[in-house]
Q: What sequence folds into this?
């Protein structure tokens, strides 16, 4: 099961950044490259523990839907979402936030299991893990840019 871990320093207060990271509208802005939009569940504003959201996006030229649920939240330190339905066999995405040097360190830990058994494992090694790592990093950089623009 691949685990992608990425840390990002953001020059913004942890409380503000935590809210940006769980904001559906901001998520849509930071995933413009995949034309991601919320189509069911919470479709705007802040996600809370117990909320679900269904995302529609284009990955690898294919329009896909994925439903995730926020299963845990400890404001402003951490929230966790899991996939309920979608292209993966399963995933858990842990978002951690730590105050440091007047800013915030965000740590994304994305653990997933590909579908299709051995074929999925081969896809992980050839392209999927790299693709997901780039996606996580791109979203973190987008969040950083928005947060720092708002606090400057």
A:
């Amino acid at each position: 099961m691949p685990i992608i871990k990425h840390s990002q320093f953001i020059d913004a207060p942890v409380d503000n950044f935590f809210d940006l990271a769980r904001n559906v509208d901001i998520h849509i802005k930071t995933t413009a490259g995949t034309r991601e939009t919320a189509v069911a569940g919470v479709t705007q504003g802040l996600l809370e523990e117990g909320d679900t959201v269904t995302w529609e996006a284009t990955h690898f030229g294919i329009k896909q839907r994925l439903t995730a649920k926020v299963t845990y939240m400890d404001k402003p330190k951490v929230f966790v979402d899991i996939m309920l339905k979608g292209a993966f066999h399963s995933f858990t995405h842990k978002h951690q936030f730590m105050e440091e040097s007047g800013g915030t360190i965000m740590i994304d830990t994305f653990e997933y299991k590909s579908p299709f058994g051995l074929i999925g494992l081969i896809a992980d090694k050839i392209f999927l893990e790299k693709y997901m790592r780039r996606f996580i990093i791109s979203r973190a950089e987008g969040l950083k840019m928005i947060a720092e623009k708002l606090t400057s």
